Each structure stands twice: as C-alpha cells, then as structure tokens.
C-alpha cells in the first residue's frame, strides 16, 4: 500500500463522506503549551471516522459481491458505519456483536437496517460466529481494521487535515486495531512538510507500545479501559506500517484519559468518546514524548451512551 491508495480512496469517497471541520481551543493551547488542531471525526456520518473505511470497502466491491452482502464483527463504531454504508449503497450487512456491546451502538446498527447476531464477548466467539454466517450467506468479510480497503479509507481523514491545516509538526492518532493509524501513516508520506505521527493508546491496552518496543505483534490486551474502542490487537497489516513509519507510541493512564475527556467536553463543547481523548491525554501526561509545536489531533468518534444508569 502507498499514499496513492489513500488518494484513490479520497476520490471514491468524495460524494459520500463529510469533510469534517477542524476546531481549535485557546484554553487547551494554553493548557498544553502547543497549538492544537482537532480534526472532528466525531461529526462524521455515523459519528466516527469508521464511516470512511466502511464506505470505501463497499465501493470497492463489484455488483455480484454487493448483491450477496457483507459480514463483519464489531462491538462499536465499525458496526454502525458499515450498517449505514450498506443502507446508502443498498448492500445487505450482517454484523456479529458481543453481548457486551454498548447499547447506543447496538441501537444505531439496528436503525441503519443491518442484521445483528450476538455472541459471547470473546475473540474466539466473534470469529466462529462470523465464519458460520459467511458460510451460510456467501457474503464478503469486511474486517473492522485489517483490510487494505478500510486502511485506505481511514487515511482520508489525515489527507483532509493536511489540506486544512498547513505546516503541522506532528499528528496524534488513537490506536486500537490500527486502521486509522495505518491510513494516517500512508497519508503523510511525502507531504511537505511531513508531520511525524504519534500513536496514542491507554496504558491498560498497550499492545501497540509493547509491539513497537519489542518488534513483535502482541495479542489483544486484557486490561479494562474507559476507552473501550481501543481494546483491540493491532492488525497484521497495520503492525508493519507502525514499525516502519511511526515516530513514537505514547500511553496514557485512565486518570489521564478521564481528565482529557473532561477538558474536551468543557473547553471545546464537542461530544466525543473517551477513545477520542486518548491523544490529548497522552500529550498532557507525557509532553516530552511528543515533539513539535503545531499538532493535529484526530477526534475519532462521538458515539457516547447517554442513557441513564440504573
């Protein structure tokens, strides 16, 4: 894969995705001692950057494959994104979701018209259920992050940010499965100037950091974190991209994520998920690990469950 794949995805996606705005905050600039530019993918269709990759993957299918439908497994934003993309492009979508999936994300998938099959909240159960549905339906697997079509689509968020904000020193990207990170790493190659890319993740789900330092891809993290969207092992296609191109992997504590989330809600008035707060939390907690003055931060999503707790 190359930067050209991300440009090709941008052309395909132009009629379908929102060109999301970039927000700034003088208060957060002062708090961090940097100039911060927040790419608001929480305002993307389906509420997250995942809509880019999901839509691009469907656009790359031929008519026969579209008629047979697609299958995925996801506990969150990819499920909703693929469901909406399927509705818009008239492609049947079947989603395998764990019983622990957030209610707001289950509701969104249903409202977008996808079929849901629930399974136990383990990777083995997800994969077994997905294989069964693929065999029964003859559909195409659209992996949430370990798919070149997905990676290229996610990278279009970074391309837009480069167009909207010139002369960035670095981009801060939350990392779970690594689709957004991989796409961003491809998107910045050859840009002038070429910003360094910093992968940010919770201390409690630090498989990317362990893989980056050891040189070996790590299993899915077992820790619990408020940034539930990042509790995923780095994908096989994204791991080598990280090893070759990423400038650093920086982790943040749960306290740091919660404080950054509060700051984003209070200072920017943007509704974001805790996963979106991980880059800001990483910067505030480990400022010396992140170089540069002008920093782009991708706010990955805004699908927060606001239903009353009982």
TrEMBL record:
Enzyme class: lyase
Tryptophan synthase beta chain-like PALP domain residues: 16-301
Cross-referenced InterPro entries: TrpB-like_PALP, TrpB-like_PALP_sf
Domain of life: Bacteria
Molecular function terms, GO-annotated: ATP binding; L-serine ammonia-lyase activity; magnesium ion binding; pyridoxal phosphate binding; serine racemase activity; threonine racemase activity
Cofactor dependency: pyridoxal 5'-phosphate
GO BP, sorted A to Z: D-serine biosynthetic process
UniProt keywords, alphabetically: Lyase, Pyridoxal phosphate
EC id: 4.2.1.-
PANTHER family: SERINE / THREONINE RACEMASE FAMILY MEMBER (PTHR43050), SERINE RACEMASE (PTHR43050:SF1)
UniProt-recorded name of the protein: Phenylserine dehydratase
